[in-house]
Amino acid sequence: MRNKPLILVVDDEGSFLDVITTKLKAAGFDTATARSATEGIKATEELLPDLVLMDIYLPPGQNGADAAITLKQNPKTKDVKIAFLSGLKDPWPSLSGDKKAVCKELGMEDFWEKTEDLNELLEKTKALLAKDNG
């Protein structure tokens, strides 16, 4: 059992990783990072974090949505909470419907935009982690 929730942030932008992990650590969370979908899958399997914040656009190779689906299909990681955190306003232009609804259909927890206020992202993170624990 962990003393603090562990949040894995998967993003290819180093500066964003620095900012978001600093904010999460200051709020009392433990953090880990990965810079690609492949690293994110491996880190999730090894660490079994309480929450994965997954960017959708992760060059090169597999994208964040594919990685998240892979994790949800893996018996070891299927119960790990995953929220997409993206700078893309419309990550799935070929799909009609609300992006939050698409996330739920894929088995993910939520969709958040990177452009949101960091304090708001922090509150959403706390609320998401408290859902099953409170």
Blueprint (SSEs and pairs):
Layout: E1 6-10, H1 14-26, E2 30-34, H2 37-47, E3 51-54, H3 64-73, E4 81-86, H4 99-106, E5 110-113, H5 118-130
Parallel strand pairs: 1-2, 1-3, 3-4, 4-5
Helix pairs in contact: 2-3
Overall average pLDDT: 84
- Tell me the structural class: alpha/beta
CATH architecture: 3-Layer(aba) Sandwich
Domain count: the total is 1
CATH superfamily: Response regulator
Q: Which stretches of 5+ consecutive residues score pLDDT under 50?
A: none
The separation of the N and C termini measures 16 Å
Run of helices and strands: EHEHEHEHEH
* Helical residue percent band: 40-55%
Describe this structure in words.
It is a single chain. The chain is an alpha/beta fold. The protein has one domain (6-130): Response regulator (Rossmann fold, 3-Layer(aba) Sandwich). 41% of the residues lie in helices and 18% in strands. It is built from 5 helices and 5 strands. It has helices at residues 14-26, 37-47, 64-73, 99-106, 118-130; strands spanning 6-10, 30-34, 51-54, 81-86, 110-113. The chain has a 5-stranded parallel β-sheet, with helices on both faces. Helix 2 runs parallel beside helix 3 (64-73). The radius of gyration is 14 Å and the shape is globular.
In short:
The chain is of the alpha/beta class and 134 residues long. The chain has 5 helices and 5 strands; from the N terminus they run βαβαβαβαβα. It has one domain: Rossmann fold.
Describe this protein with a few key phrases.
alpha/beta; 5-stranded parallel β-sheet
